[in-house]
Amino acid sequence: MAEYRLYCFAQSGNAYKAALMLALSQADWEARFVDYFNGETKTPAFREVNEMGEVPVLEHGDQRLCQSGVILDYLAERLGRFGGETPEQRREILRWLLFDNHKLTSYTATLRFMLAFGKAGDTPVTRFLRDRSNVALGTLDARLAEHDFVTGAAPTIADISLCGYLYFNDEFDVVWSRDFPAIGRWLERIAAMPGWAHPYDLMPGHPLPAS
Ligand SMILES: N[C@@H](CCC(=O)N[C@@H](CS)C(=O)NCC(=O)O)C(=O)O
User: Fold this and answer.
1) What is the whole-number distance in angstroms between the Cα of residue 182 and the centre of ligand 1?
2) Which residues are near ligand 1 (CB < 6 Å)?
3) What is the pTM of this model?
4) Atom number of ligand 1 nearest to Cα 42
5) How far apart are CA 149 and CA 154, in angstroms?
6) Which CATH number belongs to the domain containing residue 47 in this structure?
7) How far apart are CA 108 and CA 112, in angstroms?
8) Is 70 exceeded by the pLDDT of residue 32?
9) CA 188, 13, 139: angle at the middle one, nearest 5?
């Protein structure tokens, strides 16, 4: 059995944040596939694993953690990677983790879900989500026009969190070079790091079976 066990599925950008951290840190980990598209996260058995009914969930020894930001913080501490050096850096990482969870991932992931899996097309709801996602992406793009990584010259768990959904860009109709070029260059820098893999290659469950 591997040292770390991650409940995940390939289409989950939130689970990707934890999986990517484990991969970039060359940790000893294994995936535990969660059959989200057949309702596993809604089952009583899964609620025993996570009362919030979500992936990712990380098991390590007798610990069981959920919420990608908490998992990233825990892994940074345990693995000694991507966690920042000073209290100021750690607060800066926390600032971007909160921005990601509230403003970037929330709107972008919901937009992508509705387009890619809900086949919603162009509706008032998807237009609202796209506007909100674009504002958050614009904030990130402006930051990355000035810095190689979100909190400075080196990658941290803030980068790992913020990029969680952004390698799925063809599923929410964003072209980085056209729309947010600094984000595109940053995604290439992350993808060049040893251990990087696309979410569909890092976690089980892709492609989805034909419905
Ligand atoms: N804030 C949470 C979000 C986790 C989340 O939304 N997970 C989704 C998959 S990407 C999920 O498991 N949803 C289950 C459900 O809604 O039933 C985190 O960062 O871990």
Assistant:
1) 27
2) 12, 14, 36, 41-42, 53-56, 67-68, 101
3) 0.98
4) 17
5) 6
6) 3.40.30.10
7) 6
8) yes
9) 60
